[in-house]
Structures are given as C-alpha cells and as structure tokens.
Amino acid sequence: MSEVSKTAGAPGEVVPAQRSGTEDTFLSVRDLRIHFQTDDGLVKSVDGVSFDVKPGETLGVVGESGSGKSVTSLGILGLHRAAPNARISGEVWLDGEELIGADPDHVRRLRGQKMSMIFQDPLSAMHPYYTVGAQIVEAYRVHNKVTKKAARTRAIEMLDRVGIPEPGKRVDSYPHEFSGGMRQRAMIAMALVNNPQLLIADEPTTALDVTVQAQILDLIRDLQKEFGSAVIMITHDLGVVAEMADKLLVMYGGRCVERGTAEQVFYEPQHPYTWGLLGSMPRIDRDQTERLIPVKGSPPSLINVPDGCAFNPRCPYADIPKDDITRTTRPELTETGNGHFSACHMAQEERTRIWTEEIAPKL
Amino acid sequence: MAAYFIRRVFGAVLLLLIVSAVTFAIFFLVPRLAGQTMDQLAAQYVGKDANPDSVAAVKKNLGLDQPLYIQYWDFIRQIVVGADYQFGPETTRCDAPCFGYSFRRHVEVWPQIVARVPITFSLAIGAAVIWLVSGVATGVVSALKRGSFLDRFFMSVALAGVSLPIFFTGMLALTTLTVQWPIWSDGINYVPFTENPGEWAWNLLVPWCSLAFLYSALYARLTRAGMLETMGEDFIRTARAKGLKESQVIGKHGLRAALTPIVTIFGMDFGLLLGGAVITETVFSFDGMGKYAIKSVQDNDLPIVMGVTLTAAFFIVFCNLLVDLVYAAIDPRVRYS
Ligand SMILES: Nc1ncnc2c1ncn2[C@@H]1O[C@H](COP(=O)(O)OP(=O)(O)OP(=O)(O)O)[C@@H](O)[C@H]1O
Ligand code: SF4
Ligand SMILES: [Mg+2]
C-alpha cells in the first residue's frame, strides 16, 4: 500500500533466487540458526528451525521459557542483525523474498508494514513518554506518507477497531493511564495499523488476567479473519493455542521437536516432551495439583546442549531406544504422518503405543 | 499540571524558609547554647578594633539583646523592608533586600553578593553548555559503540577527567596558555558580558573548559550507563519492530529516556555551582561567589558568610524547582503521582 516497500531489487541487493515452500506459503523458515557469542560461550538460542505459514493460517509455537521462541520471532523480523554478537544463518522467505541475506534497510521497511509483532508486556513495550496515539501515528507514518492529521484519524479508527471506548479521547492518553488489557489492545492497534500480512504475537496474554486473556485472543482471531493475515502465536501455554492454532510447532532447547497440524499434535503427539506439555496443561475440570506428567527437571543449557537428544536428561523414556543412542546421536525430524514431524529415536509404534495406552487415558 | 506546578513552587518557598531558619540558628542559636555571652558574640562581629561602644552598637543593631524569635523576625522583615543601622549618632541605611551588614568591612552584604553573582554565573553557564554537549555526546557514542576502540578511549579520558582535580587541570591550562604558549598573553581576566561580550567569552574560555572537563567526564559516564540501559528496554525493541530508522530509535526513543536522570543531576550540579565555583575562581582569580565565601570565612566576617550561604541555598532550591518542572514536562508519569 505504501511506496516505500517497492524498493525490492534496489542496486546492491541480493535478488531472491528461488522461493521455497509451496506456492501459497506466505512465510517459510528454513534451518534458521541464531547463535549469540557471549562471555560464557556460544549460546545456541535457535538451532535449525524450519516451518511454513500460509495466509490466514495460525501457527502456534510452544515451548518452555528459554526454548528460543522469542529469538526465532525476532529473527524473522531481522531484529538480531544489529547485535554484534549474533550469528544468523538459514533462510527466511517472506512472500517470495529471502530476508536473512537481504539489505537491512529493505528488511526495516518490511517491519511494521508487511510483518509486525505484538509483545508480551505492553507496559514496558510502549514508550512511557509518548501518548498511545503518538506511538500509533508514528508506526503509521514510518510507512505511509500522510499528514499528522490523517495519521491521527487512522490511529483513532484503529483504537476503535480494537475495542477501546472513547477512542477520540483515549488517543491522547499515556500508556500508564491504560489498564493492562487496554494497553494490549492499543499494542495490537499499533501492530495492525499498516494491515500487515504477517502478525507475530509473542505471549500476548501472559501479562494479563484470565478474563482479559480470552478477550484479547478473541480480538486477535477476529482481526485475523477480517484481514486474512498469517499469525504466529507464541506461548508456553498450550491452552492458549488450543482453539486458535491450525498448526503447532513445539520447541525444546532451540530446536523443533515436533510439528504438525493442531489435531495431530493434540491428539496423536509423537514426542515425549509434547506429552509432558499436554500433561501439565491446566484444565478447568481438574485440579492443578493433579497434573499427570509434569516435565521434571530444568530447561537445558543452550551453551552446553546435552549430546544426542537435548531432552534426554529429563525424558522418562530415554532408555528405551537401544545402544544409548538417545545420548549420543541427535534425532532428526522425521515424518510420521501427513505433514506430522517429530524428533525422537523411539520407534513410531512404540511411541504410538505409549501415547494411546499410558498417556492419553490419564489426560 | 497546574496543581503540580503550584505544589512545587509552594514547597520550594517553604524549603527556603526552613533553610533560612536553620542557617539563622547556626549563627545565633548555637553560640547561645554553647554558652557564649551576647557581648562575646557581638565582639566577633566587630573584629579587632572592638571597644565597649562598638560592641554595644552591634549588639543593638543585630538585636542580640532581644529574644531569638524577635531577632529572626527582624531578620526576615529587614529582607523585605530594609533596615537602619545605628552607630552612635550616625545612621546607615541598608536598603531592601537587606541581608545584613558587615561591621568589619562597613558594607551592606547584598550589594557585595549582587556584584559577584554575574561572575560565578558566567563561569557556570558556559561550562555547563560545554560539559552537557560534550559529555552527553561522548556518552551516547560510547554506549552505541560499546567495547569499541572509541568507547575505550572516551572512557579512559573520562576516568582521567574524574580523577584529576580542577586545581591541577586549571593551573596547568593557565600556565601553559598564558606563559608557555601565550595565547592569552595578558593573562585571563574577567570582563563583564555587558562591557564586551567577545572579551567576556574569550577570557572565560579556559576557565570554562577546565571546569567542564571534570563535569564532562562525569556526564559521559552517566550518559553511557543510562543509554546502555535504555537501549535494552522493551520499548526500544518495539520502536525497531515498527520499522523506524536506527537514528530515530536512538534519538526519539532511546536518548529521551536516557536523558531524564541527567536532567536531575544537572539541576543539582548547576545550582551548587552557582553558589560558587570555589576552586576555579581561586585558580583564575575571578572574584566570584566562591572566592568571596572563602575570603569571608577566613576573615571571620559572619554576616557575609551568612549572606553567601543563603544565596547558595537559594540557587540550589531554585534549580531543583526548575528540574522538577522540566522533569514533569519530560516524563508524563511524574505529573500524576
Ligand atoms: N542477545 C542475546 N544474547 C545472548 N543470549 C540471548 C540473547 N537473546 C536471547 N538469548 C538467550 O536465548 C535463549 C532463548 O531465549 P528466548 O527469549 O527466545 O526464549 P523464549 O522461548 O522466548 O522464552 P520465554 O518463554 O521466557 O519468553 C535464552 O536462554 C536467552 O538467554
Ligand atoms: S530421543 Fe530419547 S530422550 Fe529424546 S525424546 Fe525420544 S526417547 Fe526421549
Ligand atoms: Mg519469549
């Protein structure tokens, strides 16, 4: 919609060779690796992650704290490239363009325009010194050559759209004058002001209380239907994505351990870590203390990732595969069903048996 | 905002009253508590040539024969309406605002201060401009190029700046630039701005830089730390995610937040400096507030010491009031708390 995005192919820029993924894929991530050089060693925050998202589709990304979800999403936006200690490799194809090797200024112009992001804590994610309206206006005017007045009208329209009462008045409020839920709505208004085709929501409801959570998720879903955008919903809580996601990606220690359609991952999960996540999912009809299969132990170090399967120190089934292979060889993602991938050394029949006989009945 | 403004101004006035009362108590209550007789106290004000007549006159003029609260009330009243000092048959008028009378020098305090404030102010304002610009600029560059050669270079210079006292850098600059390479061949002498602005600035340049060097160093380190912190904030990530240019991210989002604490510290430093840049004034022989204060203490000229103290307190309170108002303009959260 604006002129600025039409500079693809500017001199000195790498011309996209060939897009990967299927024809109707909007975002395609291939073997993304993001490592950080730190004083303690090389942090492998993301270590070979691949997935596709189609227009109008929602991909849920789940995994516990530190599994690399945020780093992955910021990597798609190209926000790690300025960090002097970041090493990035792999491919990110957005609407047919490869972004990892593209001109940084070109990627900057796509940010907030074609792809945008909602953050976890809207209070710290918004600038305390500027009004909510000013921040939305700013987001709009980076990518659109319009007057301040027109941008303000647009900001009020967006605030109205995300359900903020009296938007004409609230546009001049500061973030700290909003409630948590209102702030997240304003954040969504800001992210959607340029009608992005890809929206990444990084734990958009974690900082909110339960009733507000549901409202915000509903809002995102409505807006997605309305604009037909692709959505990546990041969360450590499977409950959040249960109703929303078309596809799921389970991350563990910077890697993808399982991905597939939501049905596949929810009803025929193939990875012991996913079983743990499902087991620790809070349910309304059951007491929290009754969690069946909590994931014991702590998340792996990303500097000294355990050899073999990164999950092995915590996996109750680590001894089932023969020859200690689980501790020596990294399991590859293999397809076990139509588009259903998982990375585990256990034989598929064994996993299906454990799931159907031992785990599923207790959930 | 208006309510906040009124509250702050009111607070500042109250603070000044308290400061004046405390200062007054130090000069007049503490000696009483220490067991000094009023004659002894009065004799201190007269100085070497004390005789029963002059002591009696001073005692009467200062109201030392009155209860303390009346003495204080007179002191405050004199500031507003002025006073008449009587020495035998002679009367000396001390016009409002009358901040007392030096019995040793036989001068009113206020005109003495008024004559010196512009010198100290000239010194402070120029130095402040230099240190703010250079300190903040190097701090920002250091933070953005953290760990680079430039950063390490700036921070080493800053460390030197913080460690080297002004009487060293000032003296060095003075001897080098007036004797060794006599760029200021006639020495450095204060010329009032109203007389010749060019000469004013030219003569102040070296004192400005000597004074600013120390503060620049402090401000560079502060700015660097503040900038490093704000550039790691979530709202900076949001600004980048919007697609803003890095220059806008730094200038509009980073610097604005990083500068807030600098404003507070600047207000205090500047207020303090207006009360007298003691060492710089002494090194460059500028007859400002600081040098005058030292001289009066040495001479035990108490009315002047008291006047200088109150003036310094006024500047500090006033600058802090300004800071509060500027702060509220920068950070909207302040206005509501
Ligand atoms: N700039 C960086 N330098 C070094 N390490 C980093 C950097 N950014 C992230 N990491 C590390 O990468 C790991 C993954 O972080 P990430 O924020 O992606 O986790 P997450 O899955 O989003 O977790 P959470 O649920 O807590 O948000 C963390 O261990 C973090 O310490
Ligand atoms: S590979 Fe081994 S350790 Fe890893 S999930 Fe499968 S069984 Fe568990
Ligand atoms: Mg995160």
Terminal Cα span of chain A: 48 Å
Low-confidence stretches of chain A: 1-21
Q: Taking all residues together, what is the mean pLDDT of chain B? A: 90
Return the average pLDDT of chain A rounded to an integer.
88
Strand line-up of the largest beta sheet of chain A: 6-7-8-3-9-10-12-11
Structural class of chain B: mainly alpha
Q: Looking at the chains present, what oligomeric state does this protein adopt?
A: heterodimer
The strands making up the biggest β-sheet of chain B line up spatially as 1-2
Domain count of chain B: the total is 2
CATH C-level of the largest domain in chain B: Mainly Alpha
- Spatial gap, N to C terminus of chain B: 11 Å
Number of strands of chain A: 12
The CATH superfamily label of the largest domain in chain B reads MetI-like
Give the low-pLDDT segments of chain B: none
Envelope shape of chain B: globular
Please supply descriptive tags for the structure shown above:
heterodimer, A: 363 residues, alpha/beta, 8-stranded mixed sheet, 4-stranded antiparallel sheet, 12 strands, 32% helix, globular, disordered N terminus, B: 337 residues, mainly alpha, MetI-like fold, two-stranded antiparallel sheet, 13 helices, 4 strands, 4% strand, binds adenosine-5'-triphosphate, binds iron/sulfur cluster, binds magnesium ion, Dipeptide/oligopeptide/nickel ABC transporter ATP-binding protein (chain A), membrane (chain A), transport (chain A), nucleotide-binding (chain A)
Explain this structure.
The complex is a heterodimer of chains A (363) and B (337). The longest helix of chain A has 18 residues, at 210-227. An 8-stranded mixed β-sheet of chain A has the order 6-7-8-3-9-10-12-11, with helices on both faces. Chain A has a 4-stranded antiparallel β-sheet with strand order 2-1-4-5, covered by helices on one side. Helices cover 32% and strands 21% of the residues of chain A. In chain A, α4 (132-143) crosses α5 and α5 crosses α7 (180-192). Among the domains of chain A are: 124-195, no CATH class; 270-362, no CATH class. Residues 1-21 of chain A have low confidence and may be disordered. Chain A is α/β, with parallel strands linked by helices. Chain B is mostly helical and 337 residues long. Chain B has 2 domains: 2-98, no CATH class; 110-330, MetI-like fold, CATH 1.10.3720.10. Helix content of chain B is 74%, strand content 4%. Chain B is built from 13 helices and 4 strands. In chain B, the strands form 2 sheets. Chain B has a two-stranded antiparallel ribbon. Chain B has a two-stranded antiparallel ribbon with strand order 3-4. In chain B, α6 crosses α8. Chain B is globular. The model of chain B has no long low-confidence stretch (mean pLDDT 90). Iron/sulfur cluster binds at residues 271-272, 309, 311-312, 315, 317-318, 320-321, 326, 331, 344-346 of chain A.
